[in-house]
Amino acid sequence: METKIIKGDLIREKIFAGVKAEIAELDKIHNRVPGIAFIGFDGIPLGKYNIPLHVQSAESLGFKVALRLLPETVPYEEVVELIRQLNSDDAINAIVLLQPLPPHLNPIRLISHIDPEKEVEGFHPKNMMSVLIPETGISRYPMCLPAALKEMFRESGINTHPQQEWVFLVDEGFLTNTLTHMIVRTAAAQVVPLDNVLSFVNKDSNNLKEFCHRADYLVVVSKNTEFVQKEWLKPGVCIIDIYSNLVKEVPSKNDPARLVPVIRGGVNLESVLGHAGAILPIPGGLMTVVMGILFRNAVISFKWSLR
Questions:
Q1: Tally of domains in the chain
Q2: What is the pLDDT of residues 13-42, one digit of tens each?
Q3: What is the distance between the alpha carbons of residues 142 and 130, in angstroms, rounded to a whole number?
């Protein structure tokens, strides 16, 4: 069996091209461009790669970028005050709290302080609720994670069928974390068809292998790298690997003096080739496209501000 490796790079670049063209057109008409603020934290291992990636990408698309880099030990009240300042800044249309946060900061409490109209990832409780209950009519843009998955499925020609089974394999730490639990549940509600079966399984469950073997779609959200075994999986399964883990840093092949990150998810890509039907891997899969949706939502927020 040939495994389809669904890389997000081409889809992301397609979204980026549309965002860049729209920003240029908005600038021509209004003599203004969307403003996006990133809040990041020093000392978070993956942050030194994740923060520049977001900033440089946003700048290349034409956004006016504000980066607020805070020390890892920053008090909660100081972050809240910064968010309040950004909420009241008319030049800022989108505020992104870059994950992960230092352990002493509660992400859902902080995100709840962001103006829902500027919280473009879909993580604010009000925005998450509007995604779950679209009849409210208050949702301005889609939640990034499920929107990215839908886009990747559509672009890759992956179609769901009645009575298929989705299994979300999640670390206990994510299930007990209010924000990540809400995100996973909300995303699942968006992407899993009503005529499909949906299960959540703790990575440490005694029934883990049984759940994995039933899955037509296996979504893995784990800080445990490459632990999913080929023998657990149904032939032809579609795997969506979500959480990026920094495994180590190695010298760049082009510039040995520069270190580059080695990123892995919960699934070893090589081990499932020829067994899985398709995989959205780490790195280069779903989260690549999530960034594109994030920037597209930031443009939508800007356009709402012009009304």
A1: 2
A2: 999 999 999 999 999 999 999 999 999 999
A3: 10
